[in-house]
Amino acid sequence: MYGVTSRTSPTKPKVSSVICVYNGARFLREAIESALNQTYPAVEVVVINDGSTDDSDAVCRQYAGRLLYRPQPNAGLARARNRGIRESTGEYIALLDQDDAWMPDKIEKQMTLFEHNPDLGLVFADSAQFDAEGRTVITRTEAGKMRRGHVLPDLYDHNFVCSLTALCPRHVLDRVGLFWEDLRFSLDWDLWLRIAQVYPVDFVDEPLAWWRWRPNHAEDNHEICLLEAYRIISVRQPAMAGLLRPDQNAGVKNRLARIAFSLSRIYRRNQDRQNAEKWLRTSVAHDRFTPEQTWALEEIETISQTI
């Protein structure tokens, strides 16, 4: 564990780059270098080693004196990120994953937007995608194009903010809180919702980061992702309902109904009748959006009568 004197500027606020690594030694050096080599003059790099058993520790120690390094027992991404934010000293916080990379002017272009509008709560950007060998797969995603200002309704529909492009002021996190540590896959989305509840959001309409393609572990844990999404919306919606129009609140109920119905299907395939019925009835209580709900209910009730 060691510290560092970060790059500073007498005229520019400091930005802290928080990198969390778990067995990511292969690409970690590239991520660190992309953060250290930003054109913006005041960048601090913080690396949290979340219990890696590969060569991640050795890679980090090669940068002694150039970054703030904190190894710890494995605690999960949310806790690792929260520690990195707490240990950092910048006025702004940016996130970077262990196998991704920033373009050199990423921070500089985003900070320009904050200089023009200090009331912003979050600035994100487009990203490009590359593979394990560094070959470009997609030149830009355009996932969040033209989503500026009050983006809460759109965020409820889906998460279009790529975490490795996100930049937000520390005082915003002080107000809305850090990452929800119970979450494994949807922690980013939950934080963006809380920020968008209070602050306007802006977007740099060009790729400022490289996202490396890798197997989608979220798809392999579809049930957990759906449970987390349902939990997030259920917990956050009461406080946010007043910020949405009636039709937008109806859309949120429809989203809950669809999530619950998807969970019911998963449990039906797994022959878990109790949970299948629970989530089907939950879905119908939120919104009847497809005849399949009625058919599934009739099937469950028929089975119940024969038992």
Task: Describe this structure as you would to a colleague.
It is built from twelve helices and nine strands. By secondary structure, the chain is of the alpha/beta class. It folds into two domains: 199 residues, Spore Coat Polysaccharide Biosynthesis Protein SpsA, Chain A, CATH 3.90.550.10; 87 residues, Alpha Horseshoe (Serine Threonine Protein Phosphatase 5, Tetratricopeptide repeat). Strands 3-2-1-4-8 form a five-stranded mixed beta sheet, with helices on both faces. Strands 5-9-6-7 form a four-stranded mixed beta sheet. The protein is globular. The model has no long low-confidence stretch (mean pLDDT 90).
Properties at a glance:
alpha/beta; Serine Threonine Protein Phosphatase 5, Tetratricopeptide repeat; 12 helices; 307 residues; Spore Coat Polysaccharide Biosynthesis Protein SpsA, Chain A; single chain; 5-stranded mixed sheet
